[in-house]
Amino acid sequence: MDSKHIVIIGGVAGGASAAARARRHSETARITVIERGPDVSFANCGLPYHIGGEISDRDELALQTPDSLRQLLNLEVLTLTEATAIDPNARSVTLRSLSDGTESSIGYDQLILSPGASPLRPPIPGIDNERILTLRNLEDMDRIMSAMPETRKVGIVGGGFIGLEMAEQLAHLGKEVVLVELQPQVLPQLDAEMVRPLQRELRHHGVELILGDGINGFARSDSGVVAQLGSGRSVECDLVILSIGVRPESDLARAAGIELGPRGHITVDSFQRTSAPDVYAVGDVCESPDPLVGGHVGIALGGPANRQGRTAADHIFLGDRALPYPGSIGTSIVRVFGLEAGVTGASEKRLSAAGIRYKAVTVNGPSHASYFPGAETITLKLLWSPEDGRILGGEAVGRDGVDKRLDVLATAIRGRLTIDDLVHLELAYAPPFGSAKDVINTAGFAATNIRDGFLVPVQTLEEAKGHVIVDVRPAAAAAALPVPDSVNIPLPSLRSRLGEIDKSKPVYTVCQMGKTSYFAARILANHGYDARSILGGAHHQAPRPND
User: Fold this and answer.
1) Which end of the chain is less crowded, N or C, counting CB atoms within 10 A of the terminal residue's CB?
2) Pairing state of beta strands 457-458 and 30-34?
3) What is the DSSP letter of 265?
4) Which of helix, strand or coil describes residue 140?
C-alpha cells in the first residue's frame, strides 16, 4: 500500500493538475492541497471575459470547488489557509488559518510548490489608492466588477496580453479606456511591426493609446485617480487597472533556503525538482529551460503550469521513468476586438538580445481559400537558423485562423523542423478551411527562396528609403494605399517598361501582399537588375492614418 503524503501549496493550474495526476497514480496516497484564497481551482484566463459579460455565469469560472475535489479525487483541501514556513529537514510546513489565525504544522513525504505569481505593484507614490486594482483571481474580478457602475473612464497600465484583454472587454461595456504602455508598442512580446494592426484596431474601437510613456505615480482626485506619467502628462480616471507583469511568489522557498534564479523564480530540473530533497515547484513560481535561446525563463501561462504539474506528480511515483518537462517556448495568443495575434518561440527582439544568428521573413496569405466567402488575410513572420534552417519562432496577426498557424509552428519548433519541412508540410485543405498552399507553406517557400538566393529580402520600407521603389500593384490599389516615394508600374506591364527603371541602381519592388513583388524582383533580376523585394507588401508595410 502506497502511504505517501503529498502536500501541494497552491491550486489553480499547476497545483490542481499535480493533485489530479497523483491521484491517478495511487488511490491510497494522502494528498493535501493548501490554498490561501477561497477558490482552489478556477479559470483565471477567463476573468476578463466575465468582467466584460462574454462569460455570463460566474460559476463557469470555478472549475472545481473544495467539495468537488474531495468527492472526485479524495483530496484534503484546506482553503483560506496560508503556508508560512517550510522546514525541508523536518519535512514539514507551518500553516496559519486566515479565518481565526491559529497555527499548525503538517508533515509531508513530497511537497509541491504552486503558489503562482502576484501582479506587480511598483513602490511609487499613490500606489495604495483603493481605486488602483489588479486582476489575478475571482476576488479581484469581483472588486473590478463592483466598481463598474460608478466608473466611466478606466486607465489600464500595461499593454501585454491581460491589458489588451481588459481594454477590449471594458470597451464592450461602453467605458472610456486609456491604455498606457512604457514600451513604444503594445504587446511587447511580439516584434513592433507585427502589432501595428492591433494598435490600429484599438484606436478604431475608441481605446486611447499612450505608448513609450511610463507611470511616475498616482494622485487622488474628486472622481478617482490621476496617473502622473513620465512625460509630465496627467491622465485622470475613475479606476486604474495595473497590468505590468507578475512577480513569482517565491518568498516561502527563499526563506527555506531553496535555490532561486536571478529574477526570483524557483530553480527546477527537468522533473520539476527544486534544490531541496522531495520538494517540487510548478507553474508561474518556477523557471523552465529555454530550448531556443538557452538558459532559463519564467513563463506565466496556464498550459505550461498544467504540464509541469503532471511531470512533478509522475516523477513522485515513477522516478526517472517519468517524462521530463522539455522547457517552454511561450506560445501565446490574444484577441483584440476583430483581430487575433500571437507568438510562438523566440521573437526577433529576443534572438537579437541573445546574440543568436537568425533569418526572418514576413508573408501574407488567406485564412482559407481566397475564393471561398469569409477569407481573411493572415500576416505571418517566420524566424529560422541560417546554420541548419531550424525554425526558431513565429508570429501571426489576422482576423481568422491565427491560432491554427501558431499551433503548427509551435509543433514544428518542438519537433525541430526546418524551413524545408514547411515547404512540403501537408495541412488540412478544403475551401472552407484552408488553401492548397497554406500561408505556412508560403513562409517555407519564401524562407527557402532567401536561403537559395532567389529572393533578396527587404524587411522594412525604411530600408528602401532613398532608393528606387517600384510598386507593381494595379494603379487603383497603389492609389488606395500609397507607398511613399514609389513609382507605379503594374506587373503585367513591367517587361515592356524596363527602360523606365535605372539599371545602375538597386531596385526595390513592392506589391499588396509580398507575392507579386517577388515575381517582379525575379523578372528584374533575370534582366540584369539588382532587385530586392519588400516583405509583407503594402498590407503590412504602408503607413496608415491610425498608425
Assistant:
1) N
2) unpaired
3) P
4) helix
Cα separation, 11 vs 20, whole angstroms: 11
The span from the CA of 221 to the CA of 223, in Å, is: 5
Strand stretches in 346-460, DSSP E: 359-366, 377-384, 391-398, 457-458
Polymer length of the chain: 547
Instruction: Give dist(CA 509, CA 524) in Å, integer.
Output: 9
Residues 6+ apart with CB under 8 A from 232: none
Distance CA 194, CA 462 (A): 15
Burial class (CB in 10 A: 0-12, 13-18, 19+), 96: middle
From 54-68, 490-504, 528-542, the region with the lowest mean pLDDT: 54-68
CB-CB contact of 14 with 120 (8 Å): no
248 pLDDT exceeds 60? Answer: yes
With CA atoms as reference, report the closest residue to 205 among 337, 78, 105.
337
Q: Which amino acid is at 522?
A: R
CB 121 within 8 A of CB 247: no
- pTM beyond 0.90, yes or no: yes
Alpha-carbon span 76 to 441, nearest angstrom:
51
Q: Which residues is 153 bridged to in the sheet?
A: 176
